[in-house]
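Notebook entry, structure prediction.
Reason for the run: the old model in the group folder had no record of what sequence produced it. Starting over properly, with the input documented here first.
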Amino acid sequence: MSNEQNSWMKAAVETRNAKTKGELQLLLENDELLGIPVIVVSGARPGATLLVTAAIHGSEFPGVEALLRLTEKLDPAEMRGTLIAVPIVNVPSFYGRGIFNNPADGKNLNRMFPGNPQGTETERIAYAITSELMPLCDAVIDLHSGDLPEDLSPHLYYRRGGTPEQEITTRGMAECFGVPYIVELPLDDKNAFSGTWYHYAALQGKAAMLVESGRQGLVEESAIQIHERGVRRCLCILGILQETLMPLAFERLSNFFYLNAPAGGLLTMYAHAGERVAEGQLIATIRNHFGEVVAEVPSPKAAVLLYHISTLSVINGEPFAEFAIPMS
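New structure, fully documented this time:
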């Protein structure tokens, strides 16, 4: 897809006092066009530009609704700068009700950045975001939630490091967002997943973070409001909106880790999302399909349980729970 056909987005960012809706278009392997919805709300005065994405995973819905609501409510006349909202990044997975992976090629979009213009459908979507939208912004927020088999407590991730301005802005956005847990990771962390959107943006010098709010593929009002209010607060941190912010309570975490299922079978959790667990505490048992316990899983460390699989079934070897260590 030529840059000319997507040039409307740059023009919309540069336009003052307007809301513009359109599609980021990309050409797929079969020569069909895919349109990704983009909403640009440009303030009456110039300033910073925030890019917010949702539905990178197709069955994570609260961020979609949050961005549609927020862009409808925002008044460009009251803004100094621009919001670029992409409510549904992974359009094929969203309408195909995909869990984690795009049904077209079986790939996880949030492991594909920066993408490949000649690659598969998922790789091309990643490339379109990084090549067409990332150059237009100063900061990135990627909205996620618990997919269909996941229960979680609201939390976010951001990367320490980068330029001093980048770190100050990122930390400010993280601390104001309104989730109880903030997971800090070093920018050059080799243990974290590669190819994630917010990490790639951070490596390119953007203030960037990934936010989780919502569970089990549900469209719950509480999860929507966390995303909507959090993005609005970040617009204030960036100076795009001029509103007074009250300090919010949160706990700082680091060194996240996963527990993998030692066997397949029927999962029973004894700890739940948002709960602090002690070292050695029983987290889960796994039974076979006759109801007999085949594995008991203790926590290897004192930590906070951020998310866990919420289905009865669990697959041998799959990560079924994520934890992070309190920093204080």
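Summary: The CA atoms of residues 57 and 99 lie 7 Å apart.
The old model has been moved to the deprecated folder.
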